[in-house]
Write a structure and sequence with these properties.
The protein is of the alpha+beta class and 211 residues long. The protein has 9 helices and 5 strands, in the order ααααααβββααββα. Strands 2-1-3-5-4 form a 5-stranded antiparallel beta sheet, covered by helices on one side.
């Protein structure tokens, strides 16, 4: 399965936004954006030109795609699926992205980043409704239970990640039993509930793909 394997901090510098791709590091002084580093490959003193309408829409799409660790084809297929659903396409897109298994594992604090959650899923540490699923893009449905496999419950990575629950809590569309390392995906999230994407303008992505 294709995935980006380059330096992820470079992506944040390109978008000039914290995409939260490296977990705790993104909140530390080591984050390049905290050091006010500019976009890669550009002279810091160079004049910044005004972006075109297409450029603004493209950057919005790139930000969201990179936050969820997806390649262009996979992201476009998700958008096409969202456009065929009833309701608002942009909100459907966010709901579908949030229902990916790697993202749900991340939201359950089984990992400190989506890339780490992707690895945990790929290595077969996660069960969905009692069955092992090692496909990060697997679509979770309301009512599904997600849990750590019995033999993986002592993994230091997962135990350390679960400590963050007391600090940041759990998203309202997920019920989590920390001790059992098990959770239930209660419902697709409403757009207003996905607070860490509050500054993402998904309508611009809809306009971009509608051209």
């Amino acid at each position: 399965m294709a995935r980006y394997t380059g330096p992820v901090c470079r992506l944040c510098r390109t978008e000039q936004k914290k995409l939260l791709l490296k977990g705790d590091r993104c909140y530390s002084d080591k984050c390049p954006l905290n050091k006010k580093r500019g976009a890669p490959g550009k002279d810091p003193k160079a004049r910044v030109g005004k972006r075109s309408e297409y450029g603004i829409q493209l950057r919005e799409k790139q930000k969201l795609k990179r936050m969820y660790g997806m390649m262009e084809r996979q992201f476009r297929l998700t958008f096409d699926r969202a456009s065929r659903m009833s309701g608002v396409t942009g909100e459907n897109l966010i709901a579908l992205l949030e229902s990916r298994l790697d993202n749900v594992a991340y939201r359950m604090h089984l990992a400190t980043s989506r890339s780490q959650a992707r690895q945990i899923v790929s290595h077969g540490h996660i069960l969905v409704n009692g069955k092992k699923v090692n496909i990060p893009s697997y679509s979770i449905k309301p009512g599904d239970t997600i849990e750590v496999k019995e033999g993986s419950k002592k993994l230091v990575t997962i135990l350390d990640s679960l400590k963050e629950v007391s600090k940041s809590g759990v998203m309202p569309w997920i019920q989590l039993d920390i001790d059992a390392q098990k959770g239930t995906y209660v419902s697709y999230p409403r757009r207003s509930e996905v607070t860490d994407l509050a500054d993402i303008k998904e309508q611009l992505i809809v306009e971009l793909y509608s051209k």
